[in-house]
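Example 3.2
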Amino acid sequence: MNRLLLVGLIASLSACNQDPDTLKTDGAAGHSQTSASSKASVNKDITAAPLPTPSLQEPVEFSSDIRKSESAAHAAEFRILGSVCRAQTTRDFKALTAHLSTDFKGWLVDRPVDGKIMAGRYTIRQYGQSQKGLDRRSFFKTLKSYLPGGRIGTCRPKTVSLKISDDGLIWGRGQIQMTGEFMASVHSAVTIEVTFQARIGDGDVAITRLRIDHMSRVDTADPLFRDVTDQLGVQNGQAKRTRGVIQSKVDQRAINQIGGLAAIDFDGNGRDDLMVWSWHRSLKILVNDGIGGFHRLERILPPDAVGLAQLYIDLDDDGRAEIVSSNVDSCRHGRAEFGLYTRGNQRYEAKPLALSFKSPCQLPSRMLYSHIEAADLNGDGKLDLIFSGYSNGNSRSNRFNLYDSDAGETTRIFINQGALKFDEQALERGVKESRFTRMTLAHDLDSDGDVDLYQSNDFGRNTLFDNDGTGHFKAIQSSLTTFGHTGGLSLVSLGATGRTGLFAGGNRDSVGRRLTVHANARLNKIAARDWQRLALGNRYFELNSKGQFIDLGDTLKLRGSGWTAGAAVIDANLDGYPDLMLPTGNLSHSDPNAPDYATYYWRTMLTALEQYSKTTTEAEMPMGIETTQDDAEAGKFVGSFGGHQSDEFLLGQNDGFISLGQTSGLASTTDGRAAVALDFDGDGDEDLAVLSLQGLKLFENTLSPKANEWLLITVKTAKQRIAYGSKVHVTIDEGRTRTQHVRLTNGVMGQRKPGLLFGLGRDSKKVSVKVVWPSGKTAQFSGLSGRVDIVDGQAPKVIPQTIWPVGTRPRAIERVIRPTKFKSTRGTSHTVPTTGGRPQVIHIFSASSSRQTAELRLLETLNSEFKGRIEVIGINGGTQKAGLTANGPSSFPVAELDKTLAMRLFGKTKRITLPATFVFDGRGRLKRAFRRPVSARDIKMALDTGRPTAQDHLDMAMIAGAQSKFGRVRQHLGEALRMNSNSALAWSRLGQLDAQEKNWPGAVSAFRKADSLVPGAKAMASALGHALLMNEETDEAIEYLKQVVDLDATADAHLGLARAYSTKGEIEKAAEQVEFAREKNPELLKRLTDKMKEQKKAAASEQDSIPDALKATPTNAFGKGQPSQWPAGLKPTTPKVKD
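Structure, written as C-alpha cells:
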C-alpha cells in the first residue's frame, strides 16, 4: 500500500478509536438493550392473568427472563417483605392484610427458646418453625403479637431467591432485618427468614402463601462497643467539606479505595498508636497521649508519596521503623521505584532507589499496588517485601475479562540484601502472575517449614505458590484456587481443632444469591459451580490430616451477608474464642433509597460465564470475554453498588459464630475498607478502629475489666526486635488450644499490632504457653497472665499496664447535657450548654498551670476570629483561684468550676484531667470532648469550619468539570495553585482547560510548568508536544513527541510523531512512523481501510496529504462537554500526581 496513503489515514484511525459503536459486541448489545417498549413488555408479562393457588413448594419450571425475574424481585421486596416493615413501623397491620389474597394461608413460628451469652449481657431468642396454618385474619393478628414493639430504627427487606412463572406466579425466599429499641433502653436486632408465594396481576401483588421459616432476636441493654470517635477528636482530619467531596465521588462511582490503618507504637512507650493514611492525600500518626486522647502528627510524607498501601516496619534492625509506600514514586529510563522512608531526627526522609525495579514506564501514575506483605521468603533471617499488583494503564479495555482476567499489574518481590538494599526478583523466583491481586499472604500454609504465597484476586481465581524450600515458587492448584473475587485474608484459629486456618472475605449479597437459579439453568456444571463460588460469601479453610484444605464456612456459620473487605480478628469478650469484625459495603450513594447497581454487575458476570460455559475446556476459554456492560441502562444509572450494608460482628462460640448485628454497637452502614484491633485505653480488652470511604471510626470495648482474664504476649528476638514469623500456642486448663502468629498484615488495608492477645475466660486454673521462633527453636512457660514480653533466651518479663485515668475515659457524644447556670468572675450569668443559640466552646483549665497564658491567648484569638458566631467560656478547674480577674481574658468570660457542672461534664469521678475542652452545637448537643491541650484547628474541625485544602479544590474542580461548569473549574484550580504552586496535577488540569478553550499559548505555558515538576512523564510530554503543535511550534513539538516514543514506543506514540512530521511536511518520516505503528498494531491497516470506506474518502495526494481532522480541537479534560477530537494516543492525559 502507498506509504503516503497511510499518512493520510491517520485521521480515520483516530475517529475509529473513538467511535463508541466499535466498542460494542453482539452479545453485549443483546444483553443490554433497554427501551420503553422492552420495559413495557416486561411489565405486561408481570401483570399477566393469575393462576390457581398451588402449594408452597419451589417450582421446577420458571421463566428464564432475568429482567422479568429481577422486576418481580424488586416488587416482592417492596410489596411483600416491605409491607411487613411498613406495618411494623406504623403498627398498622390492617393495611397489610390488603395485600393478602382471599385464599391466603400462613405459617408463623413457635414460641422462642431463650439463651444468654456473655454472663447474661446478651439474650438470644431462637424461634422454631410452626406447622400450624393460619388464615389471613389469624395470621397477622398473631404476627402482631410476635413482632416487637417500641421504636424501630431500621427495617431492611431482601429477596434472596425468586422464581416467576410465565403466568405471573411468584415463589421466593426473603429476609427481613429489623433493629431498634423495642423495650426501654434495650437495643434489639431481629432477623426473619420467610418463604412466600404471590400472584402478580392488575398492577398489584396478591400474597397467597407466607411461611416464616426462622426467626431470631438479639437483645442487650449494654452494647459491647460504642463509638467514641467524636469524643477523641480523631476523625482523620476530614472536615465536613472534605467528607462531602469524597461522598460526591462515591455517588459518581469515581472512587473505590481510600487508604488504610496500622496499629503501631510510634514513640515506644507501650501505648497503642494509630497510623492512618488516605491515598495520595495524607498520612497521619495519631499518638496516644495516655490521658484520654490522641495528638495528631501530620505531613509525615508528601501527599503524592502516600500509596494505597503502607507498611510501618523496622527493615534494617536498628530499632526505628521505616515506612514503605506502594506508590510508584518515579519511572525513568526503564526503572520505577516504590517509596522507602527512614526516620530521621525530625521527619521521615526518602531513600532513593532502595526499591527500584524494571518497568516499561507506561503511565507509572496508573500502576496500582494494593497491598504490601513482609516475610522471610528465603530463610536468611531478613524480612523481604511482596507488593501485590492490582492494575495499570493497560488493564481495562472494551474486551475486559470480568470473570478470569490476567490483565492486572505484576506482583513484585524484593529480596532483602541488608542495609536497606533490595533486589526485585519476582520472575526469577517463579511468581509470574499479573492478576488483579488485592492481597498476598505469606505463610507456611502446607506446614513444610517454608513460607508459601497465597493471593486474593479480583476478577479471577485466587493463586497459590508453593515454596520449594529455597525461596523459589511454583503455582499449584488446590481447593484454595477454585474460587476468587475475594477480599482480605487473615490467619486465625477458629475451628474446634485449634489449628491455624485461613479466613477469606467474600461476596454474599442478595442479588447474586437469587440469580443462582438462572445460573444453574443457563450454565454447564463447571460454570454453574463457579457461579455458586462467586456468591458463596466468606470462607474459612483448615488443613486436615490428609493435607487438604477444607472449607468450614457453613459449619461455623460465617458466610456473611454483604461485600466483605476482610476481617479484624479480636477476642472482644476475652472468653478464649476469637471473634470477627467484618467491614462490609462497596459503594453507598448519599441517597439511601437510590437503586443498587449490583443487579447489572451480576448480570454482566452471568454473561461472562455463559461464554465460558460454551467452551469444552478451560484452555478454550477466550482471552478476552466480551462483557461490555449495559450502555442503555448502566450508563445512565445513578445509585449505590453493593451499598448501605451493615458491618457485621460475629461473636465466637464453641460451636460457631453468632451475629450480634447492630446490638454490637459496630454495625454502621458505611463502606468499610479496613479494621484493626488495638487497646487505646490500655484496659486489657481490645478496641477497634474502622476505616471506610466515609471516614475513620474508633470504637471502645465496654467489657468490664473484671469480666475475664487475659494474656498479651509480645515475642522478641535476642536483639529486642519483634520476632516476625514466630507462633504462639496457648492451652487453657489442658483443653482449648489457640494458635496465633506474629505477623504484620490483617485483611487488605490493615496492619495489626505485634502483640498477641489471648482471652483466658474466668477462673482458668492452668495456662500453658509454647513459643516457636522462626528458626524452629521452642520454649514453654506456664502461669503467665497480663502483659508479658517473651525474649529469645530470657525469662518472660511482665510489663505494667498503661491505663487511661478514670476521669479521662470517653463519654457519650450527641447527647444533650442538662443545662447548668453559673456566674462568671465579672458577675455575668451564663448557661452551659445552651439549647438554642450559638455553638459553645467551654475550656476548662488550671489557673496554677504554666500553660494558662498560652491557652487563654488561643481562645482570645479564636473568639476574635469568629466575631460573635460562637460563645467562648473559660472555666478554672484548678485549686488556685486568685489572679483570674486581673490576668484573665478580656473578650470572653471566665468562671470557677462548680461540682454540678463538673459532674455533668466528667461524670461521677473524684479526679479529672486538665486541660479539657468541650464543644457544643447550637442545640446543646456535645460535639467534641478534648482531654488534652487543643489547637485552633482542633476546635475549627469540631465546628466543621476547616478551610478547604489544595487537594479539596482539585477535587471540587473535577466535580465542577463533570457538571460542565468550567468557570468554577478555573476558579478552583487557581485556588489550588495559590495554596501549592508546585502542584503538577493542578498545572496539568489548567493546561487541559486552556486547550479545551483553544488558548494554546496558555496550554503550552501550563504544560511546561507541569513537565518541569514531573520530568520524564510520558503523559505530560505527550500533552505538551501536542499543545506545541497546535501553537505552531512544530520543531519543539517533534522533540517532545520523540521523547514520548522513547519512553513508550506504542502505536499511538508513533502516530503522534507521524502527525507532527506530516504537519512539518516531512512526509517520508511521517510514513516511517506509520509503518512502525503498523508493526505495533497489526490490525491498524484493516481499521484504517474500513473507516476510509465508511467515510468514502479517497487517498490524498502528497501535496494534500494532511487531512483537516488532524487539526482538531482538544478533548474535554473532565469527561463532559464537546466530544473529543484528539486522535487516540495523541489526546493529552493527566498523570495521577496528587498534592
